[in-house]
Design goal:
The complex is a heterodimer of chains A (114) and B (115).
Chain A (H helix, E strand, L loop, with lengths): L3 E3 L3 E4 L5 E7 L5 E8 L3 E10 L2 E4 L7 E6 L2 E6 L8 E8 L9 E2 L3 E5 L1
Parallel strand pairs in A: 2-11
Antiparallel strand pairs in A: 1-3, 3-8, 4-5, 4-9, 5-6, 7-8, 9-10, 9-11
Chain B lengths: L8 E5 L4 E6 L7 E8 L6 E6 L4 E2 L4 E4 L5 E6 L8 E9 L16 E6 L1
Parallel strand pairs in B: 1-9
Antiparallel strand pairs in B: 2-7, 3-4, 3-8, 5-6, 6-7, 8-9
The chains are: A mainly beta (114), B mainly beta (115).
């Protein structure tokens, strides 16, 4: 059974803290993505990575950075958390092999910044 | 990527077919139609995709009009577990360089299956 896992389902942090969100996939996928989901705004892409050590900005990268040191792991970093980063964070992966290129999503991390 | 329009919400009786429409009038010839759904408190789940032919899998059927300007996702026998937000997404075929599989999610259709 293919899997994308995220390190936490729920996280509470304080303003100014450095926050790490971890995502691991076991499908040998080249591509990995970080989205955030907010009511009324849908899913918005923060960053994605198409290879180890490679990254590209998505639509809303400000306030975030990412790290991909190994193929299976993609980390999202909030250097100094702010209350407007309270959101649901979703990690996804896919491969350009195969036909559908479907994205597989993790269960999400609900982050609250106080 | 082409923009899509979906109704914000729909109801369906359990056991009946759920037909979810999507308009994508500005779709280009090389753009696919993808459907995902998101059950409450879970990540989105891929359902089906197509280019111009109708498609069917174990979850659903996808009907694309001949002019490709609209499509319908059909859940043939909806169950309570099909209650979710359904997203219709149109995007180009994937390849190396540029966007590497990014999906642009709109607001979707909230489908409520009722007993």
């Amino acid at each position: 059974d293919v899997k994308v896992t995220q390190s936490s389902r729920y996280l509470v942090k304080r303003t100014g803290e450095k926050v790490f969100l971890e995502c691991v996939q076991d499908m040998d996928h080249e591509n990995m993505f970080w989205y955030r989901q907010d009511p009324g705004l849908g899913l918005r892409l923060i960053y994605f990575s198409y290879d180890v050590k490679m990254k590209e900005k998505g639509d809303i990268p400000e306030g975030y950075s990412v790290s991909r040191e190994k193929k299976e792991r993609f980390s999202l970093i909030l250097e100094s958390a702010s209350t407007n980063q309270t959101s649901m964070y979703l990690c996804a992966s896919n491969s350009l092999r195969g036909v559908s290129h479907e994205q597989f999503f993790g269960p999400g991390t609900r982050l609250t910044v106080l | 990527d082409a923009k899509t329009t979906q109704p914000p919400s729909m109801d369906c009786a359990e056991g009946r077919a759920a037909n979810l429409p999507c308009n994508h009038s500005t779709i280009s010839g090389n753009e696919y139609v993808y459907w995902y759904r998101q059950i409450h408190s879970q990540g989105p789940q891929y359902i089906i995709h197509g280019l111009k032919n109708n498609e069917t899998n174990e979850m659903a059927s996808l009907i694309i009009t001949e002019d490709r300007k609209s499509s319908t996702l059909i859940l043939p026998h909806a169950t309570l577990r099909d209650t979710a937000v359904y997203y219709c997404i149109v995007r180009v075929a994937l390849g190396y360089g540029g966007s590497q599989g990014n999906l642009i999610f709109g607001k979707g259709t909230k489908l409520s299956v009722k007993p």
